[in-house]
Amino acid sequence: MDQVPGRKPQADACVLDVTFCQPCFQDGETRPVEDYCTICKECMCSICTNVHKKQKTTKSHTFLDKSNLPSTMRDLTTSEEESKHYCDIHPGEYIKYFCPTHQTLNCGHCSVLNHQSCKQQIISEIGKAFKEGKGYEAIKQDIVELLRETEACVSEVKENIKLVEGFGEYAITEIRNYRDKINKYFDERENALLMIITQMQSIDETFLGSLKSECDNLKMEVNAIKAKLVARENNTCQLFVEAHVTKDVLKGLQLTLADINMKNSIHQYRFRKDPTTEKLLGSKTGFGSIEDLANANALGLDEHTPSAVVDNQAAETTKTFSANTVTTLYLNPSGAQISAKPKHEKRNIVYDLTSLTFTPARDILVKSPYDSKDGWLTSLLLLPGDRLLLADNYNDTVKLVDLNTSSLVAEVSVTKELWDMCLLLWDWVAICSTGSIQFLDTRGQLSLRHTIKVDGECHGVGYDDNNLFVSYCGGKVEKMDMEGKVLKKVSKGWFSNSPFKKPFYLTVVSEGPSKAIYVSDHGTDTITKLDMNLNILQTFQDPALRDPRGITVVGNQLIICCRESSHIKCLDLLSGHMTQLLGKKDGIASPRNVTYSQQHNKMYVTIDTYVNADYVKVYKA
User: Considering only CA atoms, which of 420, 409, 396 is closest in space to residue 444?
Assistant: First the structure.
Protein backbone atom coordinates (compact mmCIF):
# COMPACT_ATOMS: atom_id res chain seq x y z
CA MET A 1 0.00 0.00 0.00
CA ASP A 2 1.24 3.43 -0.88
CA GLN A 3 2.17 5.60 1.98
CA VAL A 4 0.18 8.73 2.71
CA PRO A 5 2.27 11.83 2.03
CA GLY A 6 3.65 13.44 5.18
CA ARG A 7 3.14 10.33 7.27
CA LYS A 8 5.76 7.95 8.58
CA PRO A 9 5.12 4.24 8.28
CA GLN A 10 4.19 2.92 11.68
CA ALA A 11 3.04 -0.35 13.07
CA ASP A 12 -0.16 1.28 14.28
CA ALA A 13 -1.74 2.83 11.22
CA CYS A 14 -4.25 4.53 13.36
CA VAL A 15 -1.57 6.74 14.92
CA LEU A 16 -1.59 10.16 13.26
CA ASP A 17 1.79 11.29 11.91
CA VAL A 18 2.18 14.93 12.93
CA THR A 19 5.90 15.20 12.17
CA PHE A 20 5.87 17.02 8.81
CA CYS A 21 3.76 19.57 6.97
CA GLN A 22 1.88 17.70 4.27
CA PRO A 23 1.98 20.44 1.56
CA CYS A 24 5.71 20.96 2.15
CA PHE A 25 6.41 17.24 2.27
CA GLN A 26 4.93 16.90 -1.24
CA ASP A 27 7.53 19.42 -2.41
CA GLY A 28 10.33 17.46 -0.72
CA GLU A 29 10.60 19.66 2.29
CA THR A 30 10.22 18.61 5.91
CA ARG A 31 8.80 21.21 8.17
CA PRO A 32 7.17 20.56 11.59
CA VAL A 33 3.38 20.58 11.88
CA GLU A 34 1.85 23.53 13.70
CA ASP A 35 -1.86 23.45 12.61
CA TYR A 36 -4.48 21.25 11.07
CA CYS A 37 -7.05 22.60 8.53
CA THR A 38 -10.36 20.98 9.29
CA ILE A 39 -11.69 21.82 5.82
CA CYS A 40 -8.75 20.69 3.70
CA LYS A 41 -7.97 17.93 6.17
CA GLU A 42 -4.23 18.61 6.05
CA CYS A 43 -1.51 19.14 8.65
CA MET A 44 0.41 22.35 7.96
CA CYS A 45 3.44 24.27 9.10
CA SER A 46 3.17 27.87 10.19
CA ILE A 47 4.18 29.14 6.72
CA CYS A 48 1.46 27.14 4.93
CA THR A 49 -1.07 28.15 7.57
CA ASN A 50 -0.34 31.85 6.99
CA VAL A 51 -0.60 31.43 3.22
CA HIS A 52 -3.79 29.39 3.65
CA LYS A 53 -5.40 32.13 5.71
CA LYS A 54 -4.56 34.77 3.07
CA GLN A 55 -6.04 32.94 0.11
CA LYS A 56 -9.51 34.16 -0.88
CA THR A 57 -10.95 30.68 -1.16
CA THR A 58 -9.39 29.33 2.08
CA LYS A 59 -9.10 32.27 4.43
CA SER A 60 -12.32 31.30 6.18
CA HIS A 61 -11.13 27.75 6.94
CA THR A 62 -10.86 26.68 10.52
CA PHE A 63 -7.61 25.43 12.06
CA LEU A 64 -6.72 23.30 15.02
CA ASP A 65 -3.37 23.94 16.67
CA LYS A 66 -1.04 21.03 17.29
CA SER A 67 -2.07 20.77 20.95
CA ASN A 68 -5.64 19.97 19.89
CA LEU A 69 -4.87 17.45 17.21
CA PRO A 70 -6.55 14.02 17.66
CA SER A 71 -4.19 11.26 18.70
CA THR A 72 -5.18 8.85 15.95
CA MET A 73 -6.33 8.96 12.38
CA ARG A 74 -9.44 6.99 13.33
CA ASP A 75 -10.53 9.68 15.80
CA LEU A 76 -10.15 12.30 13.14
CA THR A 77 -11.94 10.24 10.53
CA THR A 78 -14.81 9.42 12.87
CA SER A 79 -15.28 13.08 13.70
CA GLU A 80 -15.35 13.96 10.10
CA GLU A 81 -17.79 11.18 9.30
CA GLU A 82 -20.15 12.28 12.04
CA SER A 83 -20.13 15.93 10.99
CA LYS A 84 -22.07 15.73 7.76
CA HIS A 85 -24.70 18.36 8.58
CA TYR A 86 -24.40 21.31 6.22
CA CYS A 87 -24.54 24.89 7.46
CA ASP A 88 -27.78 26.74 6.63
CA ILE A 89 -25.91 30.02 6.17
CA HIS A 90 -22.97 28.69 4.19
CA PRO A 91 -24.07 25.82 1.95
CA GLY A 92 -21.33 23.28 1.34
CA GLU A 93 -19.75 23.87 4.75
CA TYR A 94 -20.19 21.26 7.48
CA ILE A 95 -21.26 22.02 11.04
CA LYS A 96 -18.21 21.44 13.25
CA TYR A 97 -18.51 23.70 16.29
CA PHE A 98 -20.87 24.66 19.04
CA CYS A 99 -20.83 28.10 20.68
CA PRO A 100 -22.00 27.83 24.32
CA THR A 101 -22.29 31.62 24.55
CA HIS A 102 -24.78 31.97 21.71
CA GLN A 103 -26.10 28.40 21.83
CA THR A 104 -25.52 28.03 18.06
CA LEU A 105 -24.13 25.36 15.74
CA ASN A 106 -21.43 26.79 13.49
CA CYS A 107 -19.38 25.89 10.49
CA GLY A 108 -15.82 27.17 9.94
CA HIS A 109 -17.09 30.25 8.11
CA CYS A 110 -19.54 31.07 10.94
CA SER A 111 -16.74 30.70 13.51
CA VAL A 112 -14.38 33.10 11.66
CA LEU A 113 -17.03 35.67 10.82
CA ASN A 114 -19.19 35.74 13.98
CA HIS A 115 -17.56 33.85 16.83
CA GLN A 116 -13.84 34.76 16.84
CA SER A 117 -14.06 36.07 20.41
CA CYS A 118 -16.12 33.07 21.62
CA LYS A 119 -14.71 29.99 23.22
CA GLN A 120 -16.23 27.37 20.97
CA GLN A 121 -16.42 23.64 21.50
CA ILE A 122 -15.57 20.99 18.95
CA ILE A 123 -18.68 18.88 18.43
CA SER A 124 -16.68 15.71 17.87
CA GLU A 125 -15.12 16.08 21.32
CA ILE A 126 -18.26 16.89 23.30
CA GLY A 127 -20.60 14.52 21.43
CA LYS A 128 -19.85 11.44 23.52
CA ALA A 129 -20.36 13.27 26.80
CA PHE A 130 -23.61 14.74 25.47
CA LYS A 131 -24.85 11.33 24.41
CA GLU A 132 -24.27 9.95 27.89
CA GLY A 133 -25.51 13.09 29.70
CA LYS A 134 -28.89 14.29 30.97
CA GLY A 135 -29.49 16.67 28.06
CA TYR A 136 -29.80 13.89 25.49
CA GLU A 137 -31.89 11.81 27.91
CA ALA A 138 -34.27 14.75 28.35
CA ILE A 139 -34.60 15.09 24.58
CA LYS A 140 -35.41 11.39 24.27
CA GLN A 141 -38.05 11.74 26.98
CA ASP A 142 -39.50 14.76 25.19
CA ILE A 143 -39.68 12.72 22.01
CA VAL A 144 -41.40 9.86 23.77
CA GLU A 145 -43.92 12.27 25.33
CA LEU A 146 -44.47 14.04 22.03
CA LEU A 147 -45.09 10.72 20.29
CA ARG A 148 -47.56 9.74 22.97
CA GLU A 149 -49.40 13.07 22.66
CA THR A 150 -49.32 12.77 18.88
CA GLU A 151 -50.91 9.34 19.06
CA ALA A 152 -53.57 10.78 21.37
CA CYS A 153 -54.15 13.62 18.93
CA VAL A 154 -54.45 11.18 16.04
CA SER A 155 -57.02 9.23 18.04
CA GLU A 156 -59.00 12.42 18.76
CA VAL A 157 -58.85 13.41 15.10
CA LYS A 158 -60.26 10.02 14.14
CA GLU A 159 -63.05 10.48 16.71
CA ASN A 160 -63.77 13.97 15.36
CA ILE A 161 -63.94 12.54 11.85
CA LYS A 162 -66.64 10.19 13.08
CA LEU A 163 -68.37 13.09 14.89
CA VAL A 164 -68.29 15.19 11.73
CA GLU A 165 -70.07 12.41 9.88
CA GLY A 166 -72.49 11.94 12.77
CA PHE A 167 -73.32 15.66 13.11
CA GLY A 168 -73.86 15.92 9.37
CA GLU A 169 -76.11 12.87 9.18
CA TYR A 170 -78.11 13.97 12.23
CA ALA A 171 -78.56 17.55 10.99
CA ILE A 172 -79.56 16.38 7.51
CA THR A 173 -82.06 13.94 9.02
CA GLU A 174 -83.52 16.72 11.18
CA ILE A 175 -83.80 19.07 8.20
CA ARG A 176 -85.53 16.48 6.04
CA ASN A 177 -87.88 15.38 8.83
CA TYR A 178 -88.72 19.00 9.52
CA ARG A 179 -89.31 19.61 5.83
CA ASP A 180 -91.66 16.61 5.73
CA LYS A 181 -93.48 17.99 8.75
CA ILE A 182 -93.81 21.41 7.09
CA ASN A 183 -95.02 19.84 3.85
CA LYS A 184 -97.59 17.81 5.77
CA TYR A 185 -98.73 20.92 7.66
CA PHE A 186 -99.23 22.96 4.49
CA ASP A 187 -100.93 20.03 2.76
CA GLU A 188 -103.37 19.82 5.67
CA ARG A 189 -103.91 23.60 5.65
CA GLU A 190 -104.53 23.58 1.90
CA ASN A 191 -106.95 20.68 2.16
CA ALA A 192 -108.77 22.35 5.06
CA LEU A 193 -109.16 25.61 3.14
CA LEU A 194 -110.32 23.78 0.02
CA MET A 195 -112.80 21.81 2.15
CA ILE A 196 -114.21 25.02 3.59
CA ILE A 197 -114.64 26.48 0.10
CA THR A 198 -116.36 23.27 -1.01
CA GLN A 199 -118.62 23.33 2.05
CA MET A 200 -119.54 26.98 1.57
CA GLN A 201 -120.28 26.37 -2.10
CA SER A 202 -122.45 23.41 -1.15
CA ILE A 203 -124.21 25.43 1.55
CA ASP A 204 -124.89 28.34 -0.80
CA GLU A 205 -126.00 26.04 -3.62
CA THR A 206 -128.36 24.14 -1.30
CA PHE A 207 -129.69 27.33 0.23
CA LEU A 208 -130.11 29.07 -3.13
CA GLY A 209 -131.77 25.93 -4.46
CA SER A 210 -134.36 26.14 -1.69
CA LEU A 211 -134.87 29.85 -2.42
CA LYS A 212 -135.31 29.07 -6.12
CA SER A 213 -137.90 26.47 -5.20
CA GLU A 214 -139.73 29.07 -3.12
CA CYS A 215 -139.52 31.55 -6.00
CA ASP A 216 -140.88 28.94 -8.42
CA ASN A 217 -143.77 28.20 -6.06
CA LEU A 218 -144.44 31.90 -5.67
CA LYS A 219 -144.36 32.38 -9.43
CA MET A 220 -146.84 29.52 -9.89
CA GLU A 221 -149.19 31.07 -7.36
CA VAL A 222 -149.00 34.47 -9.05
CA ASN A 223 -149.61 32.93 -12.47
CA ALA A 224 -152.59 31.01 -11.04
CA ILE A 225 -154.05 34.26 -9.69
CA LYS A 226 -153.45 35.94 -13.01
CA ALA A 227 -155.18 33.09 -14.84
CA LYS A 228 -158.20 33.30 -12.53
CA LEU A 229 -158.56 37.02 -13.14
CA VAL A 230 -158.27 36.59 -16.90
CA ALA A 231 -160.93 33.88 -16.78
CA ARG A 232 -163.33 36.23 -14.94
CA GLU A 233 -162.91 39.16 -17.30
CA ASN A 234 -166.10 38.23 -19.22
CA ASN A 235 -168.12 38.41 -16.02
CA THR A 236 -167.52 41.73 -14.29
CA CYS A 237 -169.23 40.68 -11.06
CA GLN A 238 -167.12 37.60 -10.68
CA LEU A 239 -164.05 39.62 -11.68
CA PHE A 240 -164.76 42.16 -8.97
CA VAL A 241 -165.16 39.50 -6.28
CA GLU A 242 -162.06 37.58 -7.43
CA ALA A 243 -159.96 40.75 -7.57
CA HIS A 244 -161.10 41.78 -4.11
CA VAL A 245 -160.15 38.37 -2.68
CA THR A 246 -156.83 38.47 -4.58
CA LYS A 247 -155.71 41.71 -2.87
CA ASP A 248 -155.13 40.02 0.47
CA VAL A 249 -153.46 37.04 -1.21
CA LEU A 250 -151.14 39.35 -3.13
CA LYS A 251 -150.12 41.11 0.09
CA GLY A 252 -149.15 37.78 1.57
CA LEU A 253 -147.22 36.85 -1.54
CA GLN A 254 -145.45 40.21 -1.49
CA LEU A 255 -144.36 39.58 2.10
CA THR A 256 -143.15 36.13 1.06
CA LEU A 257 -141.13 37.69 -1.77
CA ALA A 258 -139.65 40.27 0.62
CA ASP A 259 -138.63 37.48 2.97
CA ILE A 260 -137.00 35.60 0.09
CA ASN A 261 -135.12 38.74 -0.95
CA MET A 262 -133.91 39.26 2.61
CA LYS A 263 -132.60 35.70 2.81
CA ASN A 264 -131.10 35.83 -0.67
CA SER A 265 -127.48 36.26 0.37
CA ILE A 266 -124.38 34.16 -0.15
CA HIS A 267 -120.98 33.74 1.47
CA GLN A 268 -118.59 36.25 -0.05
CA TYR A 269 -115.04 35.25 0.61
CA ARG A 270 -111.54 35.33 -0.72
CA PHE A 271 -108.19 33.87 0.18
CA ARG A 272 -106.16 36.06 2.50
CA LYS A 273 -102.46 35.28 2.85
CA ASP A 274 -101.28 34.60 6.37
CA PRO A 275 -99.00 37.50 7.48
CA THR A 276 -96.79 35.17 9.51
CA THR A 277 -96.20 33.01 6.43
CA GLU A 278 -95.48 36.14 4.40
CA LYS A 279 -92.85 37.17 6.96
CA LEU A 280 -91.38 33.70 6.75
CA LEU A 281 -91.12 33.87 2.94
CA GLY A 282 -89.35 37.23 3.22
CA SER A 283 -86.94 36.09 5.90
CA LYS A 284 -83.36 35.01 5.17
CA THR A 285 -83.55 32.59 8.07
CA GLY A 286 -86.84 30.98 7.06
CA PHE A 287 -87.13 27.24 7.73
CA GLY A 288 -84.17 27.40 10.15
CA SER A 289 -80.42 27.91 10.43
CA ILE A 290 -77.33 25.94 11.34
CA GLU A 291 -76.15 26.85 14.82
CA ASP A 292 -72.50 26.66 15.78
CA LEU A 293 -72.75 25.10 19.25
CA ALA A 294 -69.17 26.04 20.17
CA ASN A 295 -69.56 29.72 19.25
CA ALA A 296 -73.30 29.92 20.01
CA ASN A 297 -74.22 31.66 16.80
CA ALA A 298 -75.82 30.79 13.49
CA LEU A 299 -73.59 29.94 10.55
CA GLY A 300 -73.97 31.57 7.17
CA LEU A 301 -75.50 34.81 8.49
CA ASP A 302 -74.17 38.35 8.30
CA GLU A 303 -74.92 41.46 10.29
CA HIS A 304 -77.56 42.53 7.78
CA THR A 305 -79.53 39.31 8.01
CA PRO A 306 -82.84 39.93 9.83
CA SER A 307 -83.89 37.55 12.57
CA ALA A 308 -86.95 35.42 12.00
CA VAL A 309 -89.65 36.56 14.45
CA VAL A 310 -92.50 34.21 15.21
CA ASP A 311 -95.33 35.88 17.06
CA ASN A 312 -98.01 33.54 18.32
CA GLN A 313 -100.44 36.43 18.38
CA ALA A 314 -99.61 37.78 14.93
CA ALA A 315 -101.98 35.52 12.98
CA GLU A 316 -104.50 37.83 11.35
CA THR A 317 -108.14 37.32 12.23
CA THR A 318 -110.30 38.47 9.32
CA LYS A 319 -113.86 38.12 8.20
CA THR A 320 -113.14 34.73 6.67
CA PHE A 321 -113.66 31.15 7.70
CA SER A 322 -110.89 29.59 9.80
CA ALA A 323 -109.44 26.31 8.59
CA ASN A 324 -108.50 25.43 12.17
CA THR A 325 -112.06 24.27 12.65
CA VAL A 326 -113.55 22.23 9.85
CA THR A 327 -117.32 22.28 10.08
CA THR A 328 -120.38 21.17 8.19
CA LEU A 329 -123.43 23.40 8.10
CA TYR A 330 -126.98 22.03 7.67
CA LEU A 331 -129.89 24.23 6.63
CA ASN A 332 -133.51 23.23 6.02
CA PRO A 333 -135.26 24.68 2.98
CA SER A 334 -136.60 27.64 4.94
CA GLY A 335 -133.25 28.44 6.56
CA ALA A 336 -134.80 28.09 9.99
CA GLN A 337 -132.29 25.67 11.49
CA ILE A 338 -128.55 25.96 11.83
CA SER A 339 -126.17 23.37 13.20
CA ALA A 340 -122.55 22.36 12.93
CA LYS A 341 -120.31 19.41 13.69
CA PRO A 342 -116.72 20.44 14.31
CA LYS A 343 -114.23 17.82 13.23
CA HIS A 344 -111.12 19.43 14.61
CA GLU A 345 -110.43 22.35 16.85
CA LYS A 346 -107.10 24.07 17.44
CA ARG A 347 -106.69 26.54 20.23
CA ASN A 348 -104.45 29.56 20.20
CA ILE A 349 -101.40 29.74 22.45
CA VAL A 350 -101.84 32.60 24.91
CA TYR A 351 -99.80 34.37 27.48
CA ASP A 352 -100.25 33.95 31.21
CA LEU A 353 -102.63 36.81 31.95
CA THR A 354 -101.39 37.07 35.52
CA SER A 355 -97.94 38.02 34.21
CA LEU A 356 -99.34 40.99 32.25
CA THR A 357 -99.89 44.53 33.43
CA PHE A 358 -103.15 46.15 32.32
CA THR A 359 -103.34 49.92 31.86
CA PRO A 360 -106.47 51.94 30.96
CA ALA A 361 -106.83 52.78 27.27
CA ARG A 362 -109.39 54.88 25.43
CA ASP A 363 -112.94 53.65 26.10
CA ILE A 364 -115.29 52.87 23.20
CA LEU A 365 -118.54 54.84 22.96
CA VAL A 366 -121.40 52.68 21.64
CA LYS A 367 -124.24 55.19 22.02
CA SER A 368 -126.46 55.14 18.93
CA PRO A 369 -128.55 58.11 17.71
CA TYR A 370 -131.51 55.70 17.63
CA ASP A 371 -131.20 54.76 21.33
CA SER A 372 -134.20 55.85 23.38
CA LYS A 373 -132.38 55.62 26.72
CA ASP A 374 -128.97 55.04 28.26
CA GLY A 375 -127.59 51.61 27.52
CA TRP A 376 -127.09 48.54 29.68
CA LEU A 377 -124.46 46.35 28.03
CA THR A 378 -125.18 42.88 29.37
CA SER A 379 -122.95 40.85 27.02
CA LEU A 380 -120.07 41.25 24.62
CA LEU A 381 -118.62 38.78 22.12
CA LEU A 382 -115.49 38.85 19.95
CA LEU A 383 -116.17 38.04 16.29
CA PRO A 384 -113.79 37.22 13.44
CA GLY A 385 -112.55 40.23 11.55
CA ASP A 386 -111.64 42.42 14.57
CA ARG A 387 -115.28 42.96 15.53
CA LEU A 388 -117.00 43.20 18.89
CA LEU A 389 -120.70 42.36 19.30
CA LEU A 390 -122.65 43.94 22.20
CA ALA A 391 -126.08 43.21 23.67
CA ASP A 392 -127.83 46.41 24.88
CA ASN A 393 -130.58 45.25 27.27
CA TYR A 394 -132.22 48.64 27.79
CA ASN A 395 -132.45 49.62 24.12
CA ASP A 396 -133.26 46.08 22.88
CA THR A 397 -130.52 46.19 20.26
CA VAL A 398 -127.42 44.26 19.28
CA LYS A 399 -124.54 46.54 18.28
CA LEU A 400 -121.44 45.86 16.21
CA VAL A 401 -118.13 47.66 16.84
CA ASP A 402 -115.09 47.76 14.57
CA LEU A 403 -112.13 47.31 16.94
CA ASN A 404 -109.68 48.77 14.43
CA THR A 405 -111.48 52.11 14.48
CA SER A 406 -113.24 51.71 17.89
CA SER A 407 -116.48 52.84 16.30
CA LEU A 408 -120.07 51.60 16.12
CA VAL A 409 -120.71 50.31 12.59
CA ALA A 410 -124.06 48.46 12.76
CA GLU A 411 -126.98 47.59 15.01
CA VAL A 412 -130.22 45.61 14.84
CA SER A 413 -133.37 45.62 17.00
CA VAL A 414 -134.27 42.38 18.77
CA THR A 415 -136.79 41.21 21.36
CA LYS A 416 -136.61 42.51 24.91
CA GLU A 417 -134.30 41.61 27.78
CA LEU A 418 -131.09 40.55 26.08
CA TRP A 419 -128.52 38.67 28.10
CA ASP A 420 -125.70 36.36 27.04
CA MET A 421 -124.45 35.58 23.49
CA CYS A 422 -122.28 32.86 21.97
CA LEU A 423 -120.69 32.23 18.58
CA LEU A 424 -122.03 29.15 16.80
CA LEU A 425 -119.80 29.00 13.75
CA TRP A 426 -118.47 31.43 11.23
CA ASP A 427 -120.72 34.51 11.63
CA TRP A 428 -123.80 33.01 13.32
CA VAL A 429 -124.60 34.04 16.89
CA ALA A 430 -127.14 32.81 19.45
CA ILE A 431 -128.61 35.44 21.81
CA CYS A 432 -130.44 34.77 25.08
CA SER A 433 -133.60 36.70 25.90
CA THR A 434 -136.50 36.00 28.21
CA GLY A 435 -138.38 33.00 26.85
CA SER A 436 -136.39 32.57 23.64
CA ILE A 437 -133.06 32.22 21.92
CA GLN A 438 -132.61 34.28 18.78
CA PHE A 439 -130.18 33.59 15.96
CA LEU A 440 -128.29 36.41 14.31
CA ASP A 441 -126.30 36.51 11.08
CA THR A 442 -123.42 38.98 11.42
CA ARG A 443 -122.21 38.88 7.82
CA GLY A 444 -122.11 42.47 6.60
CA GLN A 445 -125.16 44.13 8.11
CA LEU A 446 -126.66 42.44 11.15
CA SER A 447 -129.81 40.43 10.39
CA LEU A 448 -132.07 38.30 12.57
CA ARG A 449 -132.83 34.83 11.27
CA HIS A 450 -135.06 32.64 13.41
CA THR A 451 -136.03 32.07 17.04
CA ILE A 452 -136.60 29.04 19.24
CA LYS A 453 -138.72 29.09 22.37
CA VAL A 454 -137.30 28.11 25.78
CA ASP A 455 -138.92 27.54 29.14
CA GLY A 456 -137.92 30.41 31.39
CA GLU A 457 -135.71 33.46 31.74
CA CYS A 458 -132.50 32.22 30.13
CA HIS A 459 -129.37 34.21 30.89
CA GLY A 460 -126.33 32.24 29.72
CA VAL A 461 -125.75 30.34 26.49
CA GLY A 462 -122.97 28.23 25.00
CA TYR A 463 -122.54 26.04 21.96
CA ASP A 464 -120.80 22.78 21.07
CA ASP A 465 -121.31 20.00 18.55
CA ASN A 466 -124.78 20.96 17.36
CA ASN A 467 -126.04 21.51 20.93
CA LEU A 468 -126.88 24.57 22.99
CA PHE A 469 -126.23 24.85 26.73
CA VAL A 470 -128.50 27.31 28.51
CA SER A 471 -128.62 28.59 32.11
CA TYR A 472 -131.74 30.05 33.72
CA CYS A 473 -132.03 32.55 36.54
CA GLY A 474 -134.44 30.16 38.29
CA GLY A 475 -131.62 27.72 39.04
CA LYS A 476 -131.36 25.27 36.15
CA VAL A 477 -128.99 24.48 33.29
CA GLU A 478 -130.20 22.67 30.16
CA LYS A 479 -128.65 20.93 27.19
CA MET A 480 -130.82 21.18 24.06
CA ASP A 481 -130.61 20.62 20.32
CA MET A 482 -130.76 23.41 17.77
CA GLU A 483 -134.54 23.19 17.61
CA GLY A 484 -134.94 23.75 21.35
CA LYS A 485 -135.61 20.15 22.37
CA VAL A 486 -134.23 19.60 25.89
CA LEU A 487 -131.83 16.65 26.02
CA LYS A 488 -130.60 16.93 29.63
CA LYS A 489 -131.00 19.35 32.51
CA VAL A 490 -129.80 20.09 36.02
CA SER A 491 -132.30 21.91 38.24
CA LYS A 492 -133.37 22.41 41.84
CA GLY A 493 -135.90 19.99 43.22
CA TRP A 494 -136.73 17.50 45.99
CA PHE A 495 -134.64 14.77 44.44
CA SER A 496 -132.03 16.92 42.72
CA ASN A 497 -128.49 17.62 43.85
CA SER A 498 -128.24 20.73 41.67
CA PRO A 499 -125.57 23.11 42.99
CA PHE A 500 -127.17 26.10 41.29
CA LYS A 501 -129.14 28.88 42.88
CA LYS A 502 -128.91 31.72 40.36
CA PRO A 503 -126.71 30.59 37.48
CA PHE A 504 -126.03 33.41 35.12
CA TYR A 505 -123.31 33.24 32.45
CA LEU A 506 -121.69 30.10 31.08
CA THR A 507 -118.96 29.20 28.60
CA VAL A 508 -117.80 26.01 26.87
CA VAL A 509 -114.08 25.32 27.25
CA SER A 510 -111.86 22.91 25.34
CA GLU A 511 -109.33 21.28 27.68
CA GLY A 512 -107.08 19.26 25.40
CA PRO A 513 -109.00 16.26 24.06
CA SER A 514 -111.94 16.90 26.41
CA LYS A 515 -114.37 19.76 26.91
CA ALA A 516 -116.15 21.26 29.88
CA ILE A 517 -118.80 23.85 30.75
CA TYR A 518 -118.16 26.56 33.35
CA VAL A 519 -121.14 28.32 34.95
CA SER A 520 -121.06 31.44 37.15
CA ASP A 521 -123.66 31.47 39.95
CA HIS A 522 -124.15 34.83 41.67
CA GLY A 523 -126.54 33.23 44.17
CA THR A 524 -123.85 30.92 45.62
CA ASP A 525 -120.73 32.93 44.64
CA THR A 526 -119.27 29.90 42.85
CA ILE A 527 -117.97 28.73 39.50
CA THR A 528 -119.16 25.22 38.64
CA LYS A 529 -117.51 22.89 36.14
CA LEU A 530 -119.72 20.41 34.24
CA ASP A 531 -119.00 17.82 31.61
CA MET A 532 -120.82 17.87 28.28
CA ASN A 533 -123.65 15.77 29.74
CA LEU A 534 -124.13 18.25 32.63
CA ASN A 535 -122.52 16.03 35.24
CA ILE A 536 -120.92 18.11 37.99
CA LEU A 537 -117.14 17.78 37.99
CA GLN A 538 -115.91 20.54 40.29
CA THR A 539 -117.01 23.64 42.17
CA PHE A 540 -114.69 26.62 42.71
CA GLN A 541 -115.30 28.64 45.86
CA ASP A 542 -113.18 31.54 47.06
CA PRO A 543 -113.77 34.57 49.31
CA ALA A 544 -112.71 36.69 46.34
CA LEU A 545 -115.64 35.36 44.28
CA ARG A 546 -118.33 37.89 45.19
CA ASP A 547 -121.32 38.00 42.85
CA PRO A 548 -119.63 36.44 39.79
CA ARG A 549 -121.23 37.44 36.51
CA GLY A 550 -119.67 37.38 33.02
CA ILE A 551 -116.92 34.82 32.34
CA THR A 552 -114.63 34.17 29.40
CA VAL A 553 -111.86 31.67 28.83
CA VAL A 554 -108.30 32.48 27.67
CA GLY A 555 -106.19 29.36 27.35
CA ASN A 556 -106.29 27.57 30.72
CA GLN A 557 -107.50 30.68 32.52
CA LEU A 558 -111.00 31.90 33.24
CA ILE A 559 -111.58 35.65 33.51
CA ILE A 560 -114.42 36.44 35.91
CA CYS A 561 -116.36 39.65 36.56
CA CYS A 562 -116.97 39.96 40.32
CA ARG A 563 -119.73 42.53 40.37
CA GLU A 564 -120.07 43.17 44.11
CA SER A 565 -116.35 43.58 44.81
CA SER A 566 -115.70 45.46 41.53
CA HIS A 567 -112.86 43.12 40.60
CA ILE A 568 -111.78 41.27 37.48
CA LYS A 569 -110.39 37.91 38.64
CA CYS A 570 -108.35 35.26 36.85
CA LEU A 571 -108.95 31.63 37.78
CA ASP A 572 -106.26 29.13 36.81
CA LEU A 573 -108.32 26.13 35.73
CA LEU A 574 -105.48 23.67 36.39
CA SER A 575 -104.44 24.76 39.88
CA GLY A 576 -107.61 26.52 41.05
CA HIS A 577 -105.50 29.54 42.05
CA MET A 578 -107.24 32.92 41.80
CA THR A 579 -105.49 36.21 40.95
CA GLN A 580 -106.85 39.74 40.69
CA LEU A 581 -106.23 41.41 37.31
CA LEU A 582 -108.13 44.69 37.76
CA GLY A 583 -109.96 46.49 40.56
CA LYS A 584 -111.46 49.77 41.72
CA LYS A 585 -108.14 51.59 41.48
CA ASP A 586 -108.15 50.73 37.77
CA GLY A 587 -111.59 52.26 37.23
CA ILE A 588 -113.55 49.02 37.55
CA ALA A 589 -117.01 49.45 39.09
CA SER A 590 -119.62 46.66 39.11
CA PRO A 591 -118.28 44.79 36.07
CA ARG A 592 -120.94 42.91 34.11
CA ASN A 593 -119.03 41.12 31.35
CA VAL A 594 -115.51 40.81 29.99
CA THR A 595 -113.56 39.48 27.03
CA TYR A 596 -109.90 39.52 26.00
CA SER A 597 -108.51 39.98 22.47
CA GLN A 598 -105.17 38.33 21.84
CA GLN A 599 -105.04 40.06 18.46
CA HIS A 600 -105.12 43.52 20.04
CA ASN A 601 -103.67 42.61 23.48
CA LYS A 602 -106.63 44.35 25.08
CA MET A 603 -109.30 43.52 27.64
CA TYR A 604 -112.85 44.82 27.09
CA VAL A 605 -115.23 45.26 30.05
CA THR A 606 -118.86 46.34 30.39
CA ILE A 607 -120.12 47.71 33.69
CA ASP A 608 -123.41 47.91 35.64
CA THR A 609 -123.41 51.62 36.49
CA TYR A 610 -125.47 54.57 35.29
CA VAL A 611 -122.31 56.58 34.74
CA ASN A 612 -120.60 55.83 31.41
CA ALA A 613 -123.12 53.06 30.77
CA ASP A 614 -122.74 53.50 27.00
CA TYR A 615 -119.00 52.90 27.06
CA VAL A 616 -116.94 49.74 26.79
CA LYS A 617 -113.94 50.08 29.05
CA VAL A 618 -110.64 49.11 27.44
CA TYR A 619 -107.41 47.98 29.11
CA LYS A 620 -104.16 47.50 27.22
CA ALA A 621 -102.03 44.51 28.23
Answer: 409
